[in-house]
Design brief:
Chains A, B, C, D: InterPro entries: Glc/Gal-6P_isomerase, GlcN6P_deaminase-like, Glucosamine6P_isomerase, NagB/RpiA_transferase-like. 4 copies of one chain form a homotetramer. With 241 residues, chain A is of the alpha/beta class. Chain A is built from 7 helices and 10 strands. Chains in contact: A-B, A-C, A-D, B-C, B-D, C-D. Chains A and B meet through helix 6 of A and helix 6 of B.
């Protein structure tokens, strides 16, 4: 794992964008999976004007790697795709045919569809202070899992997590979500993970120390042959360097 | 992980040789780590005449990935390099400067030396019926370990294993061995693992089933983005295919 | 350009097979274009038993790079595909859906179809004593040409060449042929060219000397970043080494 | 060849920087050759603050691809390295040991030194309105040339060109220059060429039309398997798109 320590959130986002654009510039089709959430907001703010209406990125295809349904509204985008649409796909005007949606209707074939598309070339990931990545929260999926469904009773906290994800509206609180598993993500050619802020300092230290433990899911990614962790100074504050 | 099921030991060896030669034919330097032991004997029998005195393989460098000293004879090759010398380096007449020896004098810098050499392009591995690979036996190293020293008291059976490795001669029974760790091997660009015979059928089934467990070390390798498992029919006999 | 000098036709063929198998063993789809004619007979004799009915090569797709119609019989395979079918596709029992035929009906879209398939990963080429490769004979195509139609009046000798190609039967003598052009072939990721026998010694020397001249078409390939020329001793007899 | 048409000089420079950073971000050593001159000024203005004092680019090595001596001052940098130092190496504070100087003392071993370093991963090139790239002016080097010395009498205009290159000072007017040849550049893994302004519209049209002619040297690069041409609207003004 290569660790890149940047000055601040701005530089963290910029370096992540450099990685994305480096993979996107290619003679042939590229498949990229990108993260929703708050950490990558800076990434998408920088990326949108560089990508919008650019014909030279027409060979780039995008994939989401997890999804949470709004209960009773399963006929529309879930939490992740709604967020990705707002942050990136919408403002960057990405053609619908280059967005490959993972949701509750097709998660069981996600891994084989990606394989048929030639595999993922890169994934941009965040990491939780508990060590989760994608929807792989501690004690939900196992290291060996491919794309999976995780039920609301998987852990004591999960029901609350899901309620929070749908904005606290009890009526929309889902019974499950779907996520690409640790094994799915390890098969991606290039992994790029971003983390910023003091509250990530602990998990960043764990990742750099190098122990691999199933109850800290992101530790599995540290031995990947092309893994880059990009952090700001606060997230790096517990590292000795 | 791609699983290749072959008819017999002969074909298993042949397909492994095809993978090796495919990586070795290149315009630029290639770094390959290869396994000692009994499983690869067929591989080296086929490989030696194809490689011996061939100038077109002069850019290929070789690395061993573990070593066991003969106690009291630490100034000569250990068990692994002696075996590799007999099976391959000697008969294939590989130049000494293209053989990069890992032993007890330099194991602490093995990972950084490999990184400085440009990384390993391929490793050929065997697997034990207990799920060990290289010197990563159950309950010796951890998933997150780089090249490590394992002491004779690491597990109850270890002293016996080491005695057996030096041919049962108590005087030469070593107190430790060194091995590239699970994390070291995961960073190799291409992993090829071979297994043959009924006694490997159980571990092969475990690897294909896909669970990743620290006490079955080889399961860590199954999510690697370029992992190939080559088995004969007997080793595949518990698979449903 | 890397030059591999082998002892004899047998070793030349073997080393070419090693290159082919090295590209064919992969986690993902591979696209390979292969040559017909007499030079590669040894290659296909070795390759057929290694490939026939092997499920582990099911992701490999094959392309021919030129074609000559039998006049009046344009509804069946031309000279090249007939030859490739007899030498390789038939005996190796390659599925029809993995054979991508270039002929007179579709040559104008050959380059864009290949691009849509992800590009060619490797091409196995022969070379004529006049420096031709594929159907790029001196003074027919230009260095900058993509897949092209060449008419029988392109050069003074062409009518005779075409008559000979269809076995001397005047009734079947075609008015043209089609071929991937020099520029099409240069865009392939890996080029492997084979040549054997005294009558190839002159062109081999020209290729190694390194001059690039449009009337010796194969000289264009010598600066390609991944070009390997495999020759036997006779074909290498004018080289100083 | 992939053609990227940008709005203006600013976007042309930005897209070239994206290509450079994409190659530079890597787990292993990368070797990059970069162009001097006026076209890339915008590239270096953007690149310097992104690269200066960034430890995460410490594995990137830089190479110049041509050099013109100041006559009588052969013990200091020539025209190209002086220019590169002013534009990039100086302001970006690149360590001296990561700058691999080509000059009159070592040009004969340039190609073999690059090969020993693992090959060039990328070259950033400009193009002249006459079709020259690096020091490969029409009728100086041949397509098949590796790194070469070109004398002042190579063409009628050369003496004037050299005088202009040293700022019009007759005393410093050199008798020759050195340049990586067309064959040297073709062997680079990734080629990126930039061109802007109306006066480049003619050569850009020639490159896109695709004819390959030795007296328009840059046309040789158009069939390279990973060639990208980045132009602004003015340089693209003769293209039909």
């Amino acid at each position: 794992m290569k660790v890149i320590i940047t000055e601040d959130y701005q530089e963290m986002s910029q370096v992540a964008v450099q990685h994305l654009l480096g993979v996107m510039h290619s003679q042939h089709r590229k498949n990229i999976s990108i993260t929703a959430g708050s950490t990558p907001k800076g990434v998408y703010e920088m990326l949108v004007p560089l990508v919008k209406n650019k014909k030279y990125f027409e060979h780039v295809h995008f994939y989401n790697f997890d999804e949470i349904p709004f209960k009773g509204e399963e006929d529309r985008y879930g939490v992740t795709m709604t967020n990705l649409h707002n942050l990136f796909f919408g403002p960057a005007e990405i053609d619908r045919e280059r967005i490959h949606v993972l949701d509750w209707t097709n998660y069981e074939t996600q891994d084989e569809r990606i394989k048929a598309d030639g595999g993922l070339d890169m994934v941009l990931l965040g990491v939780g202070s508990d060590g989760h990545f994608c929807g792989n929260l501690p004690n939900t999926t196992k290291f060996g899992d491919l794309t999976s469904r995780v039920n609301a009773n998987a852990t004591p906290e999960m029901a609350d997590v899901l309620l929070s994800e749908v904005g606290g509206d009890k009526e929309k609180q889902p019974d499950f979500y779907v996520t690409m598993g640790p094994k799915s993500i390890m098969q991606v050619k290039k992994l790029v993970m971003i983390a910023n802020g003091k509250k990530k300092a602990g998990i960043v230290k764990q990742l750099v120390d190098g122990t691999v433990m199933e109850n800290v899911p992101a530790t599995l990614l540290t031995p990947h042959p092309d893994m880059t962790l990009i952090v700001d100074k606060e997230a790096a504050s517990l590292l000795s360097y």
